[in-house]
Task: structure prediction
Amino acid sequence: MELNKRIIYGLLDPRTSELRYIGLSTRGLARPRQSFAPSMALREGYHKRNWYNQLRRLGLRPSIVVLEYVPDGESLEAAEHKHILHHRSIGSRLINVTNGGEVIPTLTEGGRAKIVAANRGRVHTKESSARKSVSLKIAFATPEARRRLSEAHRGRRHSPIAIERMRLAAQRNTTRCARIKNSLGQGGGPIKDQYGTVYDSQRDAARRINGNSGDICNVLSGKLLHSRGFEFRRLTADELSDFLKMQEES
Result:
């Protein structure tokens, strides 16, 4: 039984047993195990995400080893920093971007506003959009990725709070079609991105991609090529009919 969940862990390449990544966790092995899930792909750094994608294409996953159990009261960040420096000094090809030990501060509302303002209107290059598209397809579209995601959720039981939330969501869904049809009469309506995802509205798309509805409007009108790497268009008449029919049946 794992009592101390404050650990420094390493990820090994299953092809060579080589140590490639060192991280810290306050949740024991749960954190490194969950980090390989396709749904977590975009949260990882560039080098780590590419390594994960290589393993997924081969149907493999990294092995996990506990490097140290850190007692309460001692610094996890300092322990992580120590291990990264040690393994780099002996020639380990770590994909860690930094030497560890960073404490990430909690953003204030003002800090978030500055980040949003700095990113507003940014246009990705065609090369970066293509790389992002390939990464997403690898992370979410392979049969192996879907199988592992299914296995990870198999046997899970929803908490009473989650069940109540799903019940409320089902109630809200009954009025969803009415809202969509109402927005059509106001010049809005569902839109679609280059990956085939359909959004109820520009506002819905902005919320789900953490973007700006004004930028999405400019993409639809042709003033911008994309918003945060996403290209949008309005649904055709046939697509809209199928979408509304699917919503009414759900």
Summary: Residues 7-102 form one domain. The chain has a mean pLDDT of 79. The first strand starts at residue 7 and ends at 13. The two ends are 43 Å apart (CA to CA).
